[in-house]
Amino acid sequence: MYFEIYPSGFYWRWRLKGANHEIIASGEAYTNKDGCLHAIELMKQTTLYTPVYERQA
């Protein structure tokens, strides 16, 4: 897996891609590249202990 960052208009975006290059996850738009890279670092800090919550409809 790998993270990919890219400019989109006036914003920066990130995607997490699998070994087959398919998109697994993506993030919101960031006004600067540093903000985008910071979001990736936060994602990297998640662990098996990060809780998952189900939102009720």
Describe this structure in words.
With 57 residues, this protein is of the alpha+beta class. It is built from 1 helix and 3 strands. It has one helix at residues 33-44; strands at 2-8, 11-17, 23-26. Strands 1-2-3 form a 3-stranded antiparallel beta sheet, covered by helices on one side. A hairpin with a 5-residue loop joins β2 (11-17) and β3 (23-26). The radius of gyration is 13 Å and the shape is globular. The model has no long low-confidence stretch (mean pLDDT 94).
The main sheet comes to: 3 strands, antiparallel
Strand order, sheet with most strands: 1-2-3
Give, in order, the helices and strands: EEEH
Q: Which band does the percent of strand residues land in?
A: 25-35%
What is the structural class? alpha+beta
State mean pLDDT (0 to 100 scale): 94
Shape: globular
Rg of Cα set: 13 Å
Q: Uncertain runs with pLDDT below 50, 5 residues or more?
A: none
Q: How many DSSP helices?
A: 1
Distance between the termini: 32 Å
Please estimate the helix content.
Answer: 10-25%
DSSP, total strands:
3
Helices and strands, with pairings:
Blueprint: E1 2-8, E2 11-17, E3 23-26, H1 33-44
Antiparallel strand pairs: 1-2, 2-3
Summarize the structure.
The chain is of the alpha+beta class and 57 residues long. It has one helix spanning 33-44, and strands at residues 2-8, 11-17, 23-26.
Which characteristics define this entry?
alpha+beta, 1 helix, 3-stranded antiparallel β-sheet, globular, 3 strands, 57 residues
